Amino acid sequence: MNYPFATYLTPIILCGGSGTRLWPLSRKSYPKQFVPLIGNKSLLRLTAERLALVGGASLCVAAEDHRFLVADDLKAAGLRGDLLLEPAGRNTAAAMALAAIHASANAAQGADPLLLFCPADHHIPDAAAFAAMVQQGVPAAEAGSIVTFGVLPSFPSTAYGYIEQGAARTDGSRTVARFIEKPQAAAAQALLLQGNVLWNAGIFLARASVLLAALGTHAADILASCQAAMAGAVTETPPGNGLHFVRPQKEAFLACRSQSIDYAVMEHHADVAVVPFVGQWSDVGSWNAVADLTPADDQGNRIAGQGHALQARNTFIHAPDRTVVALGTQDLLIIDTPDALLVANRDHAEQVKDVVAHLEQAQLPQATLHRRVARPWGWYDSIDLGERFQVKRIGVKPGASLSLQMHHHRAEHWIVVQGTAEVTNGDKVFLLSENQSTYIPIGAVHRLHNPGKLELEMIEVQSGSYLGEDDIVRLEDTYGRS
């Protein structure tokens, strides 16, 4: 379907957030927006595919550490544009300010772009209904209002903020009577019975000039910090992904205070309109929300992956990698990953973030890191570790290369199990195919490259006195890490 506003509307994906309530699947190094939760696609990719319906070139605001994860998902979704990389998280007011400043500076002369801000981690399966909702908000945004979108509530949730709708407007939207913070259970029930409230979806539509003026009025210090950061921004164009990495000036941005756009602007601005959305929506903000995306059996059990529920009721099992059996359980969430297992009562789903805080205090790596680690060239999975050895599975994308590097403290044995490897080992360059291997001595300059069209997978056995990732001396690197 062709939407008439697609040629002048700029979608902006807000890709921050650590997703701690979905631990152990979501972790700081690989938060929930990148996890392939639905149909083997990440929430970010699904968001990008949805936004491709309503706009052309896009912006995405994300953390510096996640730049290649974002680039991969946007490329897979066929979305092009710029990627604004925050040196640290400063919440949605700063992220939206950066995007509006950048969009204004890069618009055609005299243009005032219409900006659609969307979180990267929401699930909205009906893309056409989403596009129709956006279209309904365009007249109010073109007239100078900031438009927010609310979801028709289906139960008295205590996990969402609410928007109380006011009078109908001639442009098809409604005024916002007030924003309501996440309520207690009794207050949520009363709001639902009231009948004129919506869940706050955190999606906004506004002219760039309107948003920047509102920030200048209600959060002038945030706007000033972001303007200074963008004045010193540096742009990089990495090879192969069609995106531009835009880095705001670090010190100026770090001086910005952290506040949500709701607190900083929306609750104070005089001209905010709201448009309701009646389709299916989830912020996928807890394991209960994830469970609700999976069909239930006659006993209310929901199974994703290799789970089995016997004599159980209302139990959710997420087990993508191995067999997990729940026997005689009730009201449980069971989330299995290769290096961590969560078993929680469903009533405690919102407290999973407290588990992460506990593990961080105990200085356990599982709090923030996965066993399988994404890299711009592919991934590695640490499958075994001893006092003087480590075994990894390594996957390299077609055409990708690791850095030209050396190690002071370890040697490596490489065994190819799938695809073809081009190996640089000292002054020799040679090919290895499946079932072939090579040895990299301590101190040898080496590189691994995938010259083929299929993913290269290999087993690496490291041995030596020190096996840490910081024992890598990069001599050349395609990804700017030398």
User: Approximately how much beta-strand content do the residues carry?
Assistant: 25-35%
Shape: globular
CATH architecture grouping of the largest domain: Alpha-Beta Complex
Identify the CATH homologous superfamily of the largest domain.
Answer: Spore Coat Polysaccharide Biosynthesis Protein SpsA, Chain A
Count the DSSP helices: 11
Largest beta sheet, briefly? 6 strands, antiparallel
User: What is the structural class?
Assistant: alpha+beta
Mean pLDDT: 93
Which fold name fills CATH's third level, the topology of the largest domain? Spore Coat Polysaccharide Biosynthesis Protein SpsA, Chain A
Rg, rounded, reads 24 Å
Report on this model:
The protein is of the alpha+beta class and 482 residues long. It has three domains: 9-277, Spore Coat Polysaccharide Biosynthesis Protein SpsA, Chain A; 287-361, no CATH class; 372-476, Jelly Rolls (Sandwich), CATH 2.60.120. Helix content is 23%, strand content 34%. It has eleven helices and 26 strands. The protein has helices at residues 43-51, 67-77, 91-105, 127-142, 185-194, 208-218, 220-231, 250-254, 261-266, 287-292, 352-361; strands at residues 9-14, 58-63, 81-86, 114-119, 146-151, 162-168, 174-180, 197-207, 234-236, 243-247, 272-277, 302-310, 316-327, 332-336, 341-345, 372-375, 378-385, 389-396, 404-406, 410-418, 421-425, 428-432, 437-440, 446-449, 456-464, 473-476. The strands form five sheets. It has a six-stranded antiparallel β-sheet with strand order 16-17-18-25-20-23, with no helix packed on it. The chain has a five-stranded mixed beta barrel with strand order 5-8-6-7-11. β16 and β17 (378-385) form a beta hairpin. α3 (91-105) crosses α6 (208-218) and α3 (91-105) crosses α7 (220-231). The longest helix is centred in the first third of the chain and has 16 residues, at 127-142. 41% of the residues are buried. The mean pLDDT is 93.
